[in-house]
Amino acid sequence: MVFKAHARRLQEKTFKKQLRIMEHNHSNHLKIKSIGIDTYRENIIYMRHDCHVCLSEGFTALTRVIVKYDGRDIIATLNVIHNTQLLNHSEAALSMEAMRRLNLKEGDLIEVLHLPPVESLRSVRAKLYGQTLPSEAYQQIINDITLGKYSNIELASFIAACSDGRLNNEEIISLTKAMVHSGQKLSWPGIVVDKHCIGGLPGNRTTPIVVSIVAAAGLTIPKTSSRAITSPAGTADTVETFTNVNLDLETIQKVIEKEGGCMAWGGAVNLSPADDILISIERSLDLDSPAQLIASVLRVCFTGSDFMNQYGHNMLSYNQMMGNSQMMGNMSNGTSWQQHMSAEHNPSDEHYGYFDMNAMTFNYTFNFKNTTNGYTRHFLGKR
Q1: H-type alpha helices, 287-333
Q2: What is the CATH number of domain 18-114?
Q3: Residue in 288, 306, 349, 356 annotated catalytic
Q4: What is the pLDDT of residues 278-287, one digit of tens each?
């Protein structure tokens, strides 16, 4: 009985101490302490297990929280500190990436709040169980990934859900469009070309050769590449050994205006932020999802409105044809296409060709007239 009474008094004393701390720190604010931990791309917050925010909000290890500072906010994963010498009760620490994103310095005051449920995770769970998702679901998933609402575990779940041919053609198109809409866009007048490969072969570096040849031929080729995913070094890693690849959008524009081509690391710009995030997880998993690979490649090719503005034809989301240089056209209405080609175009025009609706092939020619000599590119394709 004496032991129980002593234990009860000790619990009451501890509770009163915690209550005093919570009363003294009645808000969800904590002072930042810089501890210099590199977590690569992941936002991590470090808080004491007995700090007033953890106690009042019920935060535990790996809880996803919102961290606010000076009108900006990020979503971070909580790591709980039991070493009382590392942080004071009123202090919190952030990973170097999180510090950079919020532009924090030691002594700044942050606010830590609960993260509302991430609704798009319902769609990820549905996909894991084999359901087909609408385009709106993929847009919401990619938006949330870009905003940092997914933990690495949740990102891995999405990648697994998309692997092994689980996405049909419509879902791949939806994922591609969502990737395109998630980032900034660059545009140049005239024809813009690109080169892609699936990668994964160490030492197989054709990009610098192809980009140089294409740019020397007078074509515009703004080439962005990834760092390593499933091989020891990615194209951007290799190119970085002889030139800077961390180019911002303004620098890319200037290089293209001067040289006609460039080689840059895609992660240094915000062209496809969701793709960069997914790649970092795919590398850890040593896994390439075919659907995401296609979406990653096609995100830099023409969208429907771009094709229509450039060539006067619309590109629908179905029944598409792809040539050997990613030039697309629509085969959904053979009569209108055949009439358009025969009645409105001839070899002297900027572009002409035909679709064979029975053989599901196309033969298309572009006459480029924006150089002194002019040149022609011919595209053949089969569905």
Answers
A1: 290-298, 304-311
A2: 2.40.40.20
A3: 288
A4: 887 887 787 7
